[in-house]
Design a protein that fits this description.
- The chain starts with 13 loop residues before the first helix and ends in a 6-residue tail after the last helix.
- β5 and β6 form a beta hairpin.
- The protein has 16 helices and 18 strands.
- The N terminus and C terminus are likely disordered.
- The strands form four sheets. A seven-stranded mixed beta sheet has the order 12-11-13-14-10-15-18, with helices on both faces.
- α5 packs across α6, α9 runs parallel beside α10 and α15 runs antiparallel to α16.
- Pfam families: T2SSE (PF00437).
- Keywords: ATP-binding, Nucleotide-binding.
- One of its GO terms (molecular function) is ATP hydrolysis activity.
- This is Type IV pilus assembly protein PilB.
Length: 468
């Protein structure tokens, strides 16, 4: 049998393909290649005993498995069965999306370059290269995606947004699509909106029991503003939706203004910021309209500008409960950001009742993590208790990334009389909050428990993780 690199269509024994259906080969990434010295050689992406047993039963001959990467085995399957190019492009698109969902990716990036197109999945917060396809294949795949997303396939010079519904094993998922013209063609990013948000509640989000009690006290209050801050991808929306589910009640009018609505919650009135050129509904115009709708609780997806900030703060002061998110590095910097937006100090201090500042750090895969000993100078630098910790490795259970999901690192600031006074001093420049870091304590705890690796801890402490 020749090397895998030299396999082409004319080397495949077509008679063997009549005994193994195309659907089976496509699904399990297997393909009978040919006979050699009384044995049948079969290309496989993953060599599994059950595949070999199935083939031995169907082909009635001894099987020799040959490992072939996904890209090549897929091409061989389509070439071998003579599948039409339209169906092949459909398969490339659907296979990539299904694979991303299998891996629990949050986003799919299609990135065109001079000779090929990289396809990367965002897994546990990092972009991982998963596929390469030709530019010719990509042109057809992009057209399919844009048609399904109700986007203009003829316009390749303008950024566009779209959305589609994807059937994943009878589970219908919303996909948000963004296209952007680059030097080598349109870059496409697909955000996968998982339906399992319905299963998430505050109790499942890694908050300590004591802090959960504090958050529930904030939820029980009738008025005031609660802000959740952190960089993009830090889980702010998940926390916010979990709180709204807890607030959801038949005797309350809960209204949101979002860009866009990410999770639909029955019983809550959710409004999308307009994406059209007229921009009929912005955060601040939508918020003004909501205030005329007799709301009890208002959720503003994000405070981005001065007008939205001022309206939200005044709503909280005048007896409404207001939730929102804001981009800052720490809980106390929320107050400085609002001051920069020209909100008056007394309104800031009096309106806010609590701030949840959070980050997500990659969780080590328990199946493959390895022991790691930190050097003495680093132990002193980071004031560590031990020298033995863990580092990533990589295995089939974590897609060879070394990580399995992410863990919540947070700081909770409650606005009691003592903290209000500290904030007043901080805003006037006479108090330094830099030593008050609940984030760091939680991060250290996870490091000691072997939940995160030293690299993740060091990145957090050194500040890289704070970059927005």
């Amino acid at each position: 049998m020749k090397n895998i690199e030299s396999i082409s269509l004319n080397l495949i024994d077509i008679t063997l393909l009549n005994k193994v259906p195309f659907e089976i080969c496509q699904k399990y990434k297997i393909l009978p290649l040919g006979r050699f010295k009384g044995k049948i050689y079969v290309g496989m992406e993953e060599i599994k005993k059950e595949y070999i047993r199935y083939l031995e039963q169907n082909l009635s001959e001894a099987i020799v498995p040959v490992k072939i990467d996904k890209e090549n085995i897929t091409k061989l399957i389509y070439d071998g069965f003579g599948v039409k190019i339209h169906d092949r492009n459909k398969y490339i698109e659907e296979n990539i999306i299904s694979d991303a969902i299998d891996k629990n990716a949050s986003d799919i990036h299609f990135e065109p370059f001079e000779k090929e197109v990289n396809i990367r999945f965002r897994l546990n917060g990092s972009l991982i290269l998963c596929y390469k396809i030709t530019r010719e294949e990509y042109e057809a795949v992009v057209s399919r995606i844009k048609v399904k997303g109700n986007m203009d396939i003829a316009d390749k010079l303008k950024a566009q947004d779209g959305k589609m519904v994807y059937n994943y094993n009878e589970n219908f998922l919303d996909l948000r699509i963004s296209s952007l013209p680059t030097y080598y063609g349109e870059k496409i990013v697909i955000r996968i909106m998982y339906n399992n948000e319905d299963d998430k509640n505050l109790e499942s989000l890694s908050f300590d029991k004591r802090d959960l009690e504090y958050i529930n006290k904030l939820i029980s209050m009738n008025s005031g503003m609660i802000l959740i801050n952190g960089p993009t991808g830090s889980g702010k929306s998940t926390t916010l939706y979990s709180i709204l589910k807890k607030e959801n009640s038949k005797d309350l009018n809960i209204m949101t203004i979002e860009d866009p609505v990410e999770v639909l919650i029955n019983g809550i009135n959710q409004v999308n910021v307009s994406r059209n050129e007229s921009g009929d509904i912005t955060f601040h115009s939508g918020l003004r309209s909501i205030l005329r709708q007799d709301p009890d609780i208002i959720m503003v997806g994000e405070i981005r500008d001065e007008e939205t900030a001022k309206i939200a703060v005044r709503a909280a002061i005048t007896g409404h409960k207001v939730y929102s998110t804001i981009h800052t590095k720490s809980s106390y910097e929320v107050f400085k950001r609002l001051k920069e937006m020209k909100v008056e100090e007394y309104l800031i201090v009096d309106s806010i009742i609590g701030v949840i500042s959070q980050r997500l750090i990659k969780r080590l895969c328990d199946k493959c993590k390895k022991e790691f000993y930190v050097e003495e100078d680093l132990i002193k630098k980071y004031k560590l208790k031990n020298s033995r910790y863990f580092k990533k490795n990589g295995c089939k259970y974590c897609n060879n990334t070394g990580y399995s999901g992410r863990v919540l690192v947070y700081d909770l600031l409650l606005m009691n009389s003592e903290n209000r006074e500290k904030i007043r001093k901080y805003l006037s420049g006479s108090y330094d909050f830099s030593s008050d870091s609940g984030h760091l304590n939680k991060c250290l705890e996870y490091l000691e428990q072997g939940v995160i690796d030293f690299d993740g801890f060091r990145e957090f402490v050194d500040g890289d993780i704070y970059e927005d």
